[in-house]
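Quick start: load a record and inspect it. Here is 3-oxoacyl-[acyl-carrier-protein] reductase MabA:
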Amino acid sequence: MKADPSSLDKAPGAGRPRDPRIDSAILAATAELLVQIGYSNLSLAAVAERAGTTKSALYRRWSSKAELVHEAAFPAAPTALEAPAGDIAADVAMMLAATRDVFTTPVVRAALPGLVADMTADAELNARVMSRFTDLFVAVRARLREAVDRGEAHPDVDPDRLIELIGEPPCCGCCCARTKSSTTPGWIRPPRSWCTGDPVTRRLAGRSALVTGASRGLGRAIALALAAEGAAVAVAGRTEQVWDDRLPGTIGETVADIEAAGGRAIAVRADLTEHDDVARLVTQARDALGPITILVNNAAFTAPGRPPVPGAQPHAKPPRPTDGKPGWPGFLSIPLAAYRRHFEISVFAAYELMQLACPDMIAAGRGWVVNITSVASRLPGDGPYPDRSGGVLPGYGGAKAALEHLTQCAAFDLAGHNIAVNALAPSKPILTPGLAYYAREFADTAPSDEFARAAVELALVDAAVVTGRTIGHREVLDGSFRAFRRESGENSREQ
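Running the structure step on this input writes:
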């Protein structure tokens, strides 16, 4: 794979490098890296290093990452369709098979989601990608016209308009989302909202969001929901590899799922207990996606342990207790360092992230902060306590209570800038991986995607009406939370 870089700089000015071996090495390196790390994490520097060349050599031939990926993923146009079968049903089956063969190669699966996002904003790129399918589209158009002539298709069918629709970026996004449960490798499906009749409103199109703790659980669900509504999402977390079977999911997997549905996202590894990581997180998100107008502070300290530093091997997984659940840790058994860590992640990091992101919102003239809280902030409540079977969460609950107060303080100070700051709590338990490790089985729970839909709604509220509130997610979804509009001087709470 390594090429001799000494031959790169012999062609003066712009244009294709004179040595075709360099082109081949670059395209092969791009294809390999796409499969290994995905579109969002691919950089021209990484491609140049893998190919044994320089970034300047890449830029002489390809003006952008999207152009390079386009050529690496589609090195040749799809083969033309076979001879017509004689009836429209067989012809359509043949067309679908040809399309499947194009879109289900590993490289195209890795490349197309990111390309779709870029194609949406770049008409020239969209035209170049679609030009690879000219012969296929010509054949499809001819088959449709023949079907109309034979009376098998409605005479009002417009083949040209149908081809135009097939070439739109949303249709391409449908073609690259795989069915994880399928037992037949290679088959493809559109995202759920594109195939069930649910409207794709994309109410957050043009906005950039940052979600912490997004490698799994509620954070992951919220990131996916925001992206489905059109937001570009910075997926933040510590986990780049699964290091403990109690905590499945990585930031890269969340990004891959967003891209597979035609969305735009980047993965940013950040330890929220480290000041430099918090600052870098905001800078990296802003540089990649633009000014941040939606911030979701979701990260919390739940299951014990922490992932290894980048590049290190995962630690051995601790054995599970014999009864399968360790139960809640008691107050007397929690050291101060662990108690403090809850506040570092849930409160101090949220405080700093709001201070760093809100200037973007002020400049934009609007913004939304959603702080994820919990009923644990109000437990165990007033004593005495005849039933103590449930346990308490002094660190987790205490940090969430502080976050709710911080929500009100921030909302008060930002009220003049059209920025809504609210806290969102599950109305019912949601068995995320962290909670499931500790908790007994609950009789009545809510799914994480339901909670995520409520988070999206809070990223759309009018800051003049809904701010400084702690709201249950079911109250958001049924609209009843608006009935609790706070009057001046009151200190109401929905839960």
